[in-house]
Structures are given as C-alpha cells and as structure tokens.
Amino acid sequence: MKNAVTSHRQRRLRAGVFVAILTLVLAACGTGGAQDGLSPASERASNIDGLFRLTLIIAIVVFVLVQAAIIYTSFKFRRKKGEEPRPVKQIHGNTKLEIAWTIAPAIILAGLAVPTVQTIFENAEEPVDALEITVTGHQWWWEYEYTDLGVVTANEMHIPVGQDIALTLTADAGDVIHSFWVPRLSGKRDLVPGHENTLTISADEVGLFLGQCAEFCGLSHANMRLRVYAHEPADFDAWVESQLAPATVVEDSEGWELFVNKGCTACHAIDGTEAEGGGLNPGPNLTHFAQRDTFAGALYDSTEENLSAWLANPSELKSMRPDLNRGMPNLGLSDDEIATLVAFLQGLS
Question: Which of 61, 104, 203, 346 has a CA-to-CA distance to 195 between 20 and 30 Å?
C-alpha cells in the first residue's frame, strides 16, 4: 500500500514538472506581442536584439556542452546493476581542469565585452538633425514637450518615421525615479528627479508602439503606460499643425464654467485659456484631449463610458493617492455634472 501511494505521488510530481516545462516552452513560442523586444523596429533596437541573440547562442552552446558532460559522466561511471561497491580514489583536485574552467569563462566574457561596448557606444551616439522632445515622468503619467515645435501633450507621443528623436528625460524634484521604455524602438533609460538623461529613439515603420515605466515608482507603477505613434512625415506635420491650433473652448459654456468652478484649472492646462495647470498636483495638458485615443496614463480608451467612470471615482479605476497630491481626487460630481464634463472634454479637439 505504501509503495502504491509513493508511486502515485511520483507520477503526480512528474506530471506537474512536465506541465510546468511545457507551459514555459509554449510561453517562449509567443511572438509579435505589443511590447516584443525581439521584433525591433529601429536600428538601435536591432543593435540590442543582435547582442541578445549572440549572448543567447553562446549560452546555449555552453549549456549543451556542460549538460552533455554531466550526462556522459553519469552513465560512464555509474554503478552497474549487481556490481559490488568499489573503492573510489579521493583526489584533492585537478589543477589543469580548474585552470581551464577559470580561463574559458573569462575568455567568453572578454569576447562578449567587445560587441557589448560597441553596442553601447553606437546607441549613445548623438543624433544629427533630431526632433527634440522633453519627457517628464509624473506619478503616474507622462508629459511630452516638443521643444522646437511648441507642442505639449501627455502619454501619447507622435513621431515621424525615419528620423531620430532625441529625448531629454527628467522628473520633477518632488517625484520619484521612472524609466522610459519602448522595447521595439530602443533601450530603457531612467528619469531621475532634478536630473536630465538622454535617449535616442526612432521608428523604421509606421505603426503604434507600446511601452511603459520600467522602474518601480509606487502604487500605480504597472498602470504607467505609454504609446508612440510613428507617422509618415506628411502625416506627422499634419498632427503638429492640429496641435498648434487654438483650443476649441467656449468659455461661457456650462462645461467650461463647471471645469473652472470644480478647480480643474489648478491641475490641468488648456492652452489659450486661463487654465494654466501645474500646482502641487500637476495633471496632463488637455488642450487637444479629444484627439487622444487613451487617458489615465494610456490605461483606458477615451470613450464616454470610461470617462464617466473616471470622473465618478478616479481611484476606483486606477490606484492613486490624491491625499498626497499624487493623482486625481474624487470631486463628488453628480451624474449631470459628469455628463457635462465628459461632453466638454470630448469637445477639446
């Protein structure tokens, strides 16, 4: 009976191990994900991908050789069935082998250092005729200022295909460290409060590229997402022109009056109006909010239903700490006020 129970447990254990390995193998087969770093869409991302693949190949070769040696030794020197125990000669060590397995990894690592350093320097080269964007990380959203174009937006970055984009990365002095990462376009780089870092990205193809904060930054770190839209140059120019157009705000409308009276202007700016934003709890610039596909740190699609739920109770949709000036507070709006503000926001085209 005891043997039967033990055998059953062993079968369950083997089955569990098999399922775990199969799950890992199948997960590794996935390609084309939204943040798939193995599908680079720029020269710098391709450099990183090439270095990763080289390292992976070397690691696989080493793994196979080591496992082959272990398997060979296990079978070669195993005790045969029915064989009497035999004395084993005890040795202190093997100097030649120890030297070999010390030198071999050192040579491999030294060899890997060459393409690694080369990739670092290639990706760090200062771009020429680049579009300059200042990226400011906030808990938990992104602010983009197109330095030479006079455009300020949030969470959704727009860039032209085939042109280098020089990012200046920073965070407010009272904020925390963030990390900007769009896997298909480049590597990641930290945004340090009171300090400026630089990162160059680019896109070789038109499309939407997803990214997120890659440095734990508090309560809603996982919800600090970002989007990069790569356009043909003419389409990018049209987007810039639309962003430079005056805000479509009727300042004697019910929506505007409610926006002002509820104190929204203390956090959110709308260019060309008295809403200057900033303050102790800065929120995204809303000048052309209706042109964006998402809101709340690129977390939710910008639909009437989602906007209504957000205005009813922001912290229910996204974990925040408005009591510490981190995120939007609950304004206690009535259903009619929510409907009015949603219509106002969707009119900011």
Answer: 203
